[in-house]
Amino acid sequence: MSLKKCKEAINRELKDYGKAQQAVLPCLHAAQEKCGYISEEVLSYLAKELGISRVELYSVVSFYSMFKLEKKAKNVLQVCVSLPCYIKGSKSILEVIREKLGIGPGEVSSDGKFSIETVSCLGACDKAPVMMVNDKMHEDVTPEKAKEIISKLKGKRTVKRKSAKPKKTKKRKKL
Ligand code: FES
Predict the structure, then answer these.
(1) The whole model's pTM is what?
(2) How far is the CA of 135 from the centre of ligand 1 (A)?
(3) CB-based pocket (< 6 A), ligand 1
(4) pLDDT in tens, 125-148
C-alpha cells in the first residue's frame, strides 16, 4: 500500500481528533490498517503533523506490541512456545511449517505470503498447542491440522473425508 494511502488514512483521523495527543493511537491504527505496518516515512509524517518528535512517537509504537515496524507477510503464523503448548507439541507444528513452507521463526517466505513467529502464551493454554493465523486462533493444533491450515492458506483445496453414514433423505409430505 502506498504512502499516499497511509497519509490519507492519517489525515482522516486528524480531522476527527485534531492534532492533539489523543490522535496518536487512532492515527497509528489507521496507518497500520492501511499499510500493514508503521514505516519510517509514516513515523516522520505523523510526528510532523502532530508536532511531536519522532523519538516520542517511536516510543509509543514500540510500547504497543500490536504495532509493527516492519512489513509483514500476507499471512502471519504465530506459534505459541510457552511451556504448556511446548509440552503438547508446538515444536512439531514448527517442523510441519518448515517442511511445508521452508521457513522458520523470524523468516518470511520468498513470495512474501508467509511469515512465522514464535510467541509466548496466547491465553488459551487449556487448548494447547495454539497457533494464531493472522487474527484467527487455532486451538488443539496437531501436525495434520497445521498441514490443512497451510494448504488452505496456499489456496489448495483440501479433500474432505466422506462420511461413512449414508445421507438421510427427506420424505416428501403427502398433499
Ligand atoms: S502456553 Fe500456549 S496458549 Fe498458553
Answers:
(1) 0.58
(2) 16
(3) 80, 82, 84-85, 121-125, 128, 130
(4) 999 999 999 889 999 999 999 999
Give me the number of domains the chain comprises.
Answer: 2
- Which of 40, 49, 43, 42 is CA-nearest to residue 21? 49
Per-residue pLDDT reduced to its tens digit, 59-107: 999 888 788 887 778 899 999 999 999 999 999 999 999 999 999 998 8
Which residue range forms the structural domain that includes residue 51? 3-63
Alpha carbon distance 114, 37 (integer Å):
15
Residues 27 and 85 in one domain: no
